[in-house]
Amino acid sequence: MKRTNRDRSLGKTFNHISRNIHWVVKHQLERYGVGSGQHFFLFLLDQSPGITQNEVSRKTNIDKATAAKGLAKLDLQGYIKRVPDTEDRRLRRLYLTEKGKEIIPKIKESLAQVTEICSADLSEKELEVLFSLLDKVESSLSTYVDSHITSFLSIDKERL
């Protein structure tokens, strides 16, 4: 019996691709002490200076404890700083330090290299189609997650 595309697992394929991308990024950035997951935080702070830790967690879909741990490490390494909010002293706004700003081009270079590696056997047109299709997949997943997240969160709270 012939396998169809519907018989294949997108999750398995994306997981395999993701693991390999993380491996490449990890090895490219480890000399700076930045883990493959932490570069997302730095990139987000570069794009959204002054964001709060809760906003980082929400925008990256990373639970608060994991985000807090990653951000604490970046703070200790001197890549980010926490500044009390001027209106609500309980909040801490997150900013890149000079050291953090200096690593952003290296992160961008690493991500560009990953794209080059991943697309080495693709024509420019195929890469354009791939990104278009991936945008659709991401949109579908985001819509699903956004519409179900409150029910998932309430189930998690019930287990506690």
- The overall number of domains is 2
Spatial strand sequence of the major β-sheet? 1-3-2
Rg computed from alpha carbons, rounded to a whole number of angstroms: 19 Å
Mean pLDDT: 88
**Helix- and strand-based class?**
mainly alpha
Query: Rough shape?
Result: globular
Query: What's the tally of helices?
Result: 6
Specify the CATH architecture of the largest domain. Orthogonal Bundle
Largest sheet: 3 strands, antiparallel
Distance between the termini: 46 Å
Say what the CATH topology of the largest domain is. Arc Repressor Mutant, subunit A
Uncertain residue ranges: none
- Number of DSSP strands? 3
Structure description:
The protein folds into 2 domains: 8-118, Winged helix-like DNA-binding domain superfamily/Winged helix DNA-binding domain (Arc Repressor Mutant, subunit A); 121-160. 68% of the residues lie in helices and 8% in strands. The chain is built from 6 helices and 3 strands; from the N terminus they run H-H-E-H-H-E-E-H-H. Strand 2 and strand 3 form a beta hairpin. Helix 1 (10-29) crosses helix 5 (98-118), helix 2 packs across helix 5 (98-118) and helix 3 crosses helix 4. The protein is globular and about 60 Å long. It starts with 9 loop residues before the first helix and ends with a helix. The mean pLDDT is 88.
